[in-house]
Amino acid sequence: MYKKFTDEELVELLRQGKDKAFDELYFRYRDVLVRFVYMRMKSVPVSEEIVQEVFTTIWERRKTLVIQKNFSAYIYTSVRYMTLDYIKSHTITDQYIKEVVQRSNNEYSSTSTTEASIYYEELQEAVDKATSLLPKKSKEVFILSRIKHYTNKEIAQELNVSHETVKYHIAYALKFMRSYLGEFN
Question: What gap in Å lies between CA 53 and CA 32, rounded to an integer?
Answer without folding.
Answer: 15
